[in-house]
C-alpha cells in the first residue's frame, strides 16, 4: 500500500503545499526551467533578436510569485509586487507607439527597470519571511550587483546578467529561509 506524500506549507497562512519537496527546490526548478526555455528560444532567433533578449526574468517572476504565496501574502499583496512592471519603458513605448520597433536603449532600460522592481519585491519578501536579518542579507546580495545605471555601453549586458544572477541568489536565500524549521517569522 502506498502512503500519502507528506504535505508541508511554507508558513502559517500559506496556500502553497509542498509534496516531499522544499521551497528551495521549487525555486531552483522554476529558475532552471525558465533558463532552459530562454536558451531554447534564443537558439531559434536571429542574431539581432538574440541581442535584444540578453536576460530573461520569467524564472525570477515565477519564483517571486511562489515565494509570496508561500509566505502567506494575499492576492492583493502579490499583485502589488508586480504592479510596477506595468510602467516599464517597453510597456510605455507600446502604449504610445504601438508595435513600432524598440531601440536597443529602450529594451535594455526595460530590463533594468524590471530588475529594480524585482529587487524591491525580493527585499520586501525577505523582510516578510525572515525579518530584519534575512532582509539585510538579501539586500547585501542585491546591492553588490545593482542594475546598470545607463542603457548603453559595452558593459551594460554583463552588468545586467550579474544583477539577474544576484536576484536568483536572493530568491534561493528566501526559499531556504522558508524551509528552515527554526526560522523566526518576520
Q: Write down the secondary-structure element order.
A: EEHHHHHHH
* Mean residue pLDDT: 83
Share of helix among residues? 55-70%
Question: What percent strand?
Answer: under 5%
User: Termini distance?
Assistant: 41 Å
User: What topology, given as strand order, has the largest sheet?
Assistant: 1-2
Count of distinct structural domains: 1
Unreliable spans are: 1-16
Rg, Cα atoms, Å: 18 Å
What does this structure look like?
Helices cover 65% and strands 3% of the residues. The chain is mainly α and 186 residues long. α3 (58-70) runs antiparallel to α4 (75-82), α3 (58-70) runs parallel beside α7 (156-179) and α6 crosses α7. β1 (7-9) and β2 form a beta hairpin. It has one domain. A two-stranded antiparallel sheet has the order 1-2. It has helices at residues 23-43, 47-51, 58-70, 75-82, 89-97, 104-144, 156-179; strands spanning 7-9, 17-19. The chain is built from seven helices and two strands.
Give me the secondary-structure topology.
Elements: E1 7-9, E2 17-19, H1 23-43, H2 47-51, H3 58-70, H4 75-82, H5 89-97, H6 104-144, H7 156-179
Helix pairs in contact: 1-3, 1-7, 3-4, 3-6, 3-7, 5-6, 6-7
